[in-house]
Amino acid sequence: MPIVTIQVTREGTAPGASAVTPEEKAQLIKGASELLLDVLNKPLEATFVVIQEVEKENWGWGGLPVDEFRRQRAQQGKS
Hints:
Belongs to the 4-oxalocrotonate tautomerase family. This is Tautomerase. Keywords: Isomerase. By secondary structure, this protein is an alpha+beta fold. The protein has one domain (3-75): Macrophage Migration Inhibitory Factor, CATH 3.30.429.10. It has helices at residues 22-40, 66-75, and strands at residues 3-9, 48-54, 60-61, 64-65. The strands form two sheets. The chain has a two-stranded parallel sheet with strand order 1-2. Strands 3-4 form a two-stranded antiparallel sheet. The longest helix is centred in the middle third of the chain and has 19 residues, at 22-40. The N and C termini lie far apart (37 Å).
């Protein structure tokens, strides 16, 4: 019985959105489950997917809070 945990920052992917939408979560669940079916032959009904949204201030990247890391990266011309 596989368990997949997906952690994402709590922010929207479209203007005005402040979190991952239910539709996006459904796509993540479907995609992760199908990947385990395709690669490891794990049945969909035996696969559990947990999505955890983490506030951005609780997410670090490159030794910095994520917003600061992104700001610095943007100034350097990287995406």
